[in-house]
Design a protein that fits this description.
Blueprint: E1 2-3, H1 11-21, H2 30-44, E2 46-47, E3 56-62, H3 68-84, E4 92-98, E5 102-104, H4 122-132, E6 139-145, H5 156-163, E7 167-171, E8 180-186, E9 190-192, E10 197-205, E11 210-217, E12 220-228, E13 233-240, E14 246-254, E15 266-274, E16 278-283, H6 289-296, E17 300-305, E18 320-324, H7 333-344, E19 349-353
Parallel strand pairs: 3-4, 3-6, 6-7, 9-15, 16-17, 16-18, 18-19
Antiparallel strand pairs: 1-2, 4-5, 8-10, 10-13, 11-12, 11-14, 14-15
Helix pairs in contact: 4-5
């Protein structure tokens, strides 16, 4: 048990001295003593500590091709050091190997990684550990890695903050005479169908050369180029457009002429293409060019020629309302009142063009 305001316990000796000096208060009576003690305890705000004893340390061991040799040489020493410096017998160690897959390795002194080792999926490893942490027991994560992930970290940092679990890391980087890697590969997380977007690729290395790059979409080659590294860095951008909704995997692959660790030569990211929402489009033109432009962006357009006979029911399920060159006097009063409710209460969009 802990107390949020323990300073209130100083009242106990005050009550004792007061009862001794002012006998007529009769503070020595058992019921009055009990009431004073309960009052002090309530003021001190007692709290029950429900957290379990000890702490779980989850050790993420990077088994990707880029540092597998170094990990094999030093793993036993790392494990002995961690076990030797456990603060108490209630603390526990959990070892997790990861690369393209995540494998628990608690029971082996020198586990041999049996999964695919051509990727470094740090986000998957941390998410896997968060799912296995026991509720109510303190925990923290230690990552032994070279820091070169092949997938974006995404929302894992926010999940760690929400769970109040710290993530420590120890960089394991062997001396690499010739190493070139993809340091960043990003695209927008979500776009509309038919909307153009940009994929940004950055390379880093310790020598200057020309590196061939391929961009794959769902495993099929989409584009290719050559990047010139200047002072150890290079950058290129690709534009793309997808007309059908769905989730698409983009992968950047490089093939340097000399590279000691090919495990960091691939990087993946995902782009979600969502179908366009429904728009109620009120116009006076039979073949409105703005309608075709919106449909080209993937929106579902509900066209109404004029607003004379338009009812508020047409707003149901719409994301936005567009008036193109339609005067207010032609709009029914019930629809005008419905527009205000549609925008203010339902969060609908409203655009007037003319």
């Amino acid at each position: 048990m802990t107390f949020q305001s323990p300073e209130w316990f100083t009242l106990l000796p005050v009550f004792f001295v007061t009862g001794w000096l002012v006998r007529r208060l009769q503070l020595w009576r058992p019921l009055r003593i009990l009431c004073l003690i309960v009052l002090v305890l309530l003021l001190a705000k007692p709290q029950l500590d429900r957290v379990q004893k000890g702490m779980d340390l989850w050790v993420l061991v990077d088994r990707s091709d880029s540092i597998s040799d170094v990990v094999d040489q030093q793993f036993r020493e790392w494990k002995k050091l961690l076990e030797r410096h456990k603060p108490s017998r209630h603390d526990r160690l959990h070892f997790v190997d990861f690369s393209a897959e995540v494998i628990r390795a608690d029971d082996n002194d020198m586990p041999s990684f049996s999964g695919k080792s051509n990727l470094t999926r740090s986000r998957l490893a941390v998410s896997n550990v968060l799912a296995g942490i026991q509720s109510g027991k303190p925990a923290r994560i230690l990552a032994l890695t070279d820091g070169f992930g092949t997938e974006p970290f995404g929302d894992v940092a926010e999940k760690l903050r929400h769970a109040r679990i710290p993530l420590d890391f120890r960089l394991v980087r062997p001396e690499t005479p010739t190493d070139i890697r993809i340091s960043r590969f990003e695209g927008p997380p979500r776009v509309q169908a038919g909307e153009p977007f940009v994929l940004d690729v950055e390379l880093a290395g310790n020598w200057d050369t020309t590196v061939p790059l391929r961009i794959l979409r769902n495993g099929e080659e989409l584009d290719s180029a050559e990047i010139q590294l200047v002072e150890g860095s290079g950058r290129i951008r690709f534009s793309s457009r997808i007309g059908t909704p769905g989730a698409f995997e983009f992968e950047a692959v490089i093939a340097p002429p000399e590279d000691a660790y090919p495990g960091n030569n691939r990087y993946k990211t995902w782009v979600e293409v969502s179908g366009g929402p429904r728009i109620l489009f009120v116009t006076k033109y039979t073949d409105d060019p703005l309608v075709q432009a919106l449909r080209g962006q993937g929106f579902e357009i509900d066209v109404s020629l004029g607003a004379t006979n338009l009812s508020p029911g047409r707003l149901a399920g719409a994301e936005a309302l567009v008036f193109n060159n339609v005067p207010a006097y032609e709009i029914p009063n019930d629809l005008l009142r419905g527009i205000e409710f549609f925008v203010r209460a339902q969060g609908g969009g409203f655009l007037m063009v003319g």
